[in-house]
Amino acid sequence: MSEIFNAERLTRLCDFLRQSPTPWHAAHNMAARLEQAGFQRLEETANWQLTPGKRYYVTRNDSALIAFQLPASELTGLRMIGAHTDSPGLHLKPNATQRSAGWLQLGVQVYGGVMLAPWFDRDLGLAGRVHVRHGDGSLESVLLNVDRPIAMVPSLAIHLDRDVNNGREINPQTQMAPVLMQSESATLNELVAQWLQEQHGLRAVDVVDFELGFYDVQPPSLVGVKQELVASARLDNLLSCFIGLEALLDCDGSQGALLVANDHEEVGSASACGAQGPFLADVLTRINGQVGKGGEKGSEESLIQLIQSSLMISCDNAHALHPNFRDKHDEQHGPALNGGPVIKVNASQRYATNSVTGALFRDVCREADVPVQSFVTRADMGCGSTIGPITSTEVGVPTIDVGVPQWAMHSIRETAGTNDVEYLTRALVGFLNRERLS
């Protein structure tokens, strides 16, 4: 086992991944750890009274979270880490109950860029947010996690589809509805009410609305003869949420630091809790109003000064060099698993990295004794994007895009290197403790 391997951190990672099947669960679990570490919860609808040297967090839509620490001395800039809580998947339609050949099935809609083929023949659970009405007419939002195999999407036998291995197109409307039980009468609302009673003891409530999705209940695992790999659902991008949280909890608290975990990155970030929305800007405005940099606190001038004296590291996983598909990478830019964090670069600004922010991150890694890699997509292929360019555009903060290298991005089960978890955490701790951002 290599000396960089951190068994305790990997155990916490696997627990977090297993307990966070949806963005709401991820934000809830992050908030619980923050409170255990002494962070104070803030409500967006209340007046904030911020004190230098204290630590706070706030959520929006229960699926996005911002945590920050204020230095005991003057706030001269924020060291920011950005990630996102959502992952591609199969979400239920509002009127999901449907039947075929004597089986209760649930209609799904595709969320994000899902790789559909790996969803077949998996043990599926169901999780998300449910809104119920009590007998007195009051509404309540409840988290639901049916963490046992209650459904599956069965494959069609090869004898009935001889072209299945020749790249057959998958139709999510007609071929991806999971089967739950043999029944001609059961409905989704009845099942949800039953599960709410089992998990929360709720009786005599009406299911008013929900946001639910299926997920693979196979737990995360460490794979390889020397446990070089971690395999799990939702590594993109709960791995970055976890690493950012670990770094915030491990840093010495001497500098102004902020972690933002947005929702809805996989569908474009255009929401109140997404990176294109005002969540981060709202929090920065309120911080500036009380402990801002220079000028008159709360002024537009001091807010601009604070933002331009800060730096955002946008953390979202990168495409690692695949041993079976080496030709999918540029020859000089194929990041290796367990080779350290990856700086992501794109001349068309699909990533926010520039030479200034890239140089600073390389220096951070040097100081933390962490190897660093680069990723540039092939010139004849398209390039994905992250919250980095959106945050930089909306807020104006200098930004760099980095991430842990991984295989099988957007599959139902993804793979990353165990050593890279420790590498990026160490680098981010060094960043949050860094006295100068230049």
UniProtKB/TrEMBL annotation:
Superkingdom, taxonomy of origin? Bacteria
Cofactor(s), names only, from the UniProt record? Zn(2+)
Question: What Gene3D superfamilies does the record tag this protein with?
Answer: Aminopeptidase i, Domain 2, Zn peptidases
Which GO biological process entries does UniProt record here? proteolysis
InterPro entries the UniProt entry points to: Peptidase_M18 (IPR001948), Peptidase_M18_dom2 (IPR023358)
Q: What are the UniProt keywords, alphabetically?
A: Aminopeptidase, Hydrolase, Metal-binding, Metalloprotease, Protease, Zinc
GO cellular component terms listed in the entry, alphabetical order: cytoplasm
- Which major enzyme category is it? hydrolase
EC no. given is 3.4.11.-
Q: Which family does it belong to?
A: Belongs to the peptidase M18 family.
> What is the protein's given name?
M18 family aminopeptidase
